[in-house]
Design brief:
This is AB hydrolase-1 domain-containing protein. The protein is an alpha/beta fold. The protein is built from 5 helices and 4 strands, in the order ββαβααααβ. It is elongated, with a radius of gyration of 19 Å. The protein starts with a strand and ends with a strand.
């Protein structure tokens, strides 16, 4: 987790609590977003909020990391750091771009199911929402303040 702190102490009557950031993707690391844009976002929303970023389950610094590749070489052969999603730029490059992207996504899903069936059931929207609420409650708040990007 990464935090850009409020200019106000948490016991101040004007302190409003944390705003959780999610860069979207799926698969974007929230820690990096706060590190690169926390100060700017704080200027936009005001000094009464902590700006928090976290890496959702399976993403970046969280563990276990979701990756169905056995090695860096296997990932590189498949198509680089972004895997199936990185191949979506083929959609507009040929008449069969959509079919190729669909096939890669289908194969990627099958690989993930075969190689990470024990992890993937815990990497989903419901788990992420529960994690976000836990973070907010750990800051003494009951309501989630959230700013998502996509």
């Amino acid at each position: 987790m990464s935090r850009y702190p409020s200019a106000l102490p948490p016991d101040s009557p004007d302190y409003r609590g944390p705003i959780l950031l999610n860069p979207g993707g799926p698969g974007g690391p929230g820690v990096d977003l706060v590190r690169s844009a926390g100060q700017l976002i704080s200027q936009i929303v005001g000094p009464q909020f902590d700006i928090l970023g976290f890496d959702p389950r399976g993403v970046a610094r969280s563990t276990p990391r979701a990756s169905y590749f056995g090695s860096a070489a296997e990932r590189a052969v498949w198509g680089g750091q972004n895997g199936v999603l990185g191949s979506l730029n083929v959609l507009n490059t040929s008449s069969d771009g959509l079919a190729r992207a669909w096939a890669r996504a289908k194969i990627g899903g099958q690989l993930a199911d075969e190689r990470q069936a024990d992890v993937l059931p815990y990497i989903n929207t419901a788990q992420t929402a529960a994690d976000m609420l836990s973070i907010v409650k750990a800051h003494g708040k009951e309501k989630l303040l959230y700013w998502g990007f996509s």
